[in-house]
Amino acid sequence: MYLTPQRILIAGATGLTGEHLLDRLLDEPTVECVLAPSRRPLAEHPRLDNPVGELAALLPRLEGPVDTAFCCLGTTIKQAGSQDAFRAVDHDLVLAFAERARALGARHLLVISAIGADAQSSVFYNRVKGETEAALLAQDWPQLTLARPSMLLGARQEFRLGERLAAPLSRVLPGKWQGIEATVLARALWRLALEEQPGARIVESDDLRRLGR
After folding, report:
1. Other C-beta atoms within 10 Å of 108: how many?
2. What is the DSSP string of 110-151?
C-alpha cells in the first residue's frame, strides 16, 4: 500500500543528498508544500517555504502541519571541528529535528544514517550514528525509516580529500559497501516515503541502490 505525502519537512536541503531530494520533491505534483529551513537561502519556488537561519534556532518557530519529514543532516569531524561539535549535529540536532517534526504532525520520519551505524562500536563516527538511531527508535514513531548509505558519491560544494581518493575504490566494492550516488539515494528516499509500512525499518545501502534505480 502507498501513501502520497502532501506537506513535507526537510532538514539538510543544501547538502549533497538534500539538494537532490528537494528538487525531486518540488517536481512532484502531489506535494503541496515543502518546508525547508536552511542556513542560506534556497532558490525560490511557489511551493517552497524556506525559513533562513540556524536550524536549532528555527525549529521552535516552524509551523505545520506536515505529513512526512526527511532528515538529511550530517557533517564530518573535520568540518565540525571536534568530536563534540560533530555529535551536536549528527546526534543532538537530528533528535531535536525529529521531535519538532513529530510535534508538527509528521507520522513518517526518514533519516539518512550511515553504513556501520552501531551504538556499541569502538569507532566514534559509527557509535554516534548508532546512538542516534537508538534514540530515534525510542521516540516511537508511527513510521520510521533509517537509511544506511555507504560512501555518498557526487559533486560536493566543499572539497573532501579523503572521499575524493576513496570514491574510485568504493564504486567497485561488493554489496552494501559499494558507493552510492546522491541522486540514487534521493530517489530511494522518495520511494520509501511513499510506502506505508508501520514501525521502524532499516534500509542498507544495496537496497537503497536498488530502490533508487
Report:
1. 24
2. EEE--TT--TT-SSHHHHHHHHHHHHHHHT--SEEEEEE-SS
Residue 61: name the closest of 41, 33, 35 by CA: 35
Distance CA 103, CA 117 (A): 26
Q: Which residues of 154-169 are buried (b: 16+ CB within 10 A; e: fewer)?
A: beeeeeeeebeeeeee
Of all residues in the chain, what percent are helix, strand and coil, respectively (each to 5)?
Answer: 45, 20, 40
Contacts 24+ apart (CB under 8 A), 41-45: 42/13, 42/14
CATH of the domain spanning 7-211: 3.40.50.720
Report which DSSP code applies to 57. H
Predicted model pTM: 0.89
Residues with active-site annotation: 125, 129
pLDDT in tens, the chain (213 residues): 456 669 999 999 999 999 999 999 999 999 999 999 999 999 999 999 999 999 999 999 999 899 999 999 999 888 899 999 999 999 999 999 999 999 999 999 999 999 999 999 999 999 999 999 999 999 989 999 999 999 888 654 554 444 554 555 556 555 666 788 999 999 999 999 999 889 999 999 999 999 998
CB contact set of 84 (below 8 Å; sequence gap of 6+): none
- Distance (Å, rounded) from C-alpha 119 to C-alpha 140? 18
